[in-house]
Design a protein that fits this description.
It is a single chain. The protein folds into 2 domains: 139 residues, Medium-chain alcohol dehydrogenases, catalytic domain (Quinone Oxidoreductase, Chain A, domain 1), CATH 3.90.180.10; 139 residues, Alpha-Beta Complex (Quinone Oxidoreductase, Chain A, domain 1), CATH 3.90.180. By secondary structure, the chain is an alpha/beta fold.
């Protein structure tokens, strides 16, 4: 086999196009993965500046390894992060994959890597301690819903989640929040103050950005922390500096990219140590958006995500076809 099916994004097309590409070869420190499922993320909706195979998050089986990687890994089931994931085969740095626990199938495992890395990294950046009260905004999104479970697995005492829609409070409760706040015009800081006896929360993970950052700061306790994780509303924010100073709140923004490899590799290592046991015993489990889409339906699934209809991670099943262009799934 020398070629594979892949969804290619380009500046000229609003959505990736299914086409044929040469089978990638792993670099010296990479693994080649036969992809079985991929997950969609908001980053997949961003325009690209050059033609490229789309996608970042996958699950599958290691088919080959580079010259410096242990060949004993071939055949292992893994979930991971790499550019070019929306294809039948993808390469990834060998430290950017983690083993799939036996209890998970590929479609469930594909929903985990980015959420695990992002939420774990943000919680650690915020200095989460056992018993802390944590506020997680946009907690009905796929990444943040898993963040609720991760916070709990790492020792959070009380977890508060926000959503824009009252219809999604059930999703927040299934994810494990103690209190759900519907941000439909009410004062977030006032509601948090009421739930915390006027103290505020120890740590905020904000996935919204924009005008939401300021209320998050006001929701934190004196000496608390606000970690900007996502920018669903806007990548920019106007912050009132006086309340920030008066409350002695730490404000930090995090984003974990593929380079340098050691940063994400370190996070994967920490996640494997601190969270895989919770995944194995079911305390951390992916929050999925209904059924699985077929590979050919990926453009429609991206529209589903773009329009805000997803409740949890959107998963695509990738099944190798005997001949390029086959429509059987």
């Amino acid at each position: 086999m020398t070629h594979m099916r892949a969804f290619v994004a380009s500046p000229e097309t609003p959505t990736p196009v299914l086409t044929e590409r040469a089978l990638p070869q792993p670099g010296a420190d990479e693994v080649l993965v036969r992809v079985e499922a991929v997950a969609l993320n908001n980053a997949d909706l961003a325009p690209v500046t050059a033609e490229q195979v789309a996608g970042y998050e996958f699950a599958g089986e290691i088919a080959d390894v580079g010259s410096t990687v242990d060949r004993a890994l071939i055949g292992n089931r893994v979930m991971g992060i790499s550019s070019g994931a929306f294809a039948e085969y993808a390469t990834a740095h060998h430290t950017h994959v983690a083993p799939i626990p036996d209890r998970l199938d590929p479609t469930s495992a594909a929903a985990l890597p980015i959420s695990l890395i992002t939420e774990y990294g943000a919680l650690r950046a915020g200095g989460l301690r056992s018993g802390d009260t944590v506020l997680i905004t946009a907690a009905s999104s796929g990444i943040a819903a898993l963040g609720v479970q991760i916070a709990r697995a790492l020792g959070a005492g009380v977890v508060i989640g926000t959503t824009r829609s009252a219809s999604r409070t059930g999703l927040l409760e299934r994810a494990g929040v103690d209190h759900a706040i519907v941000t439909d015009g009410g004062d977030l800081a006032e509601q948090v103050s009421h739930l915390t006896g006027g103290r505020g929360v120890d740590l905020v993970l904000d996935h919204v950005g924009g005008r939401f950052v300021d209320p998050c700061i006001q929701s934190a306790r004196i000496g608390g922390a606000v970690i900007s994780v996502g920018r669903l509303a806007s990548p920019t924010a106007e912050v009132s500096l006086f309340p920030l100073a008066k409350r002695e709140v730490l404000l930090r923004s995090v984003s974990y990219g593929l380079t340098p490899a050691t940063v994400m590799g370190g996070l994967f290592s920490a996640v494997s140590t601190h969270l895989l046991p919770a995944i194995i015993d079911g305390r951390v489990t992916p929050v999925l958006d209904g059924g699985t889409w077929s590979f050919a339906q990926l453009p429609e699934a991206l529209t589903h995500l773009r329009e805000g209809r997803a409740e949890g991670k959107v998963i695509i099943s990738v099944k190798s076809q005997p001949h390029f262009g086959s429509t059987s799934h």
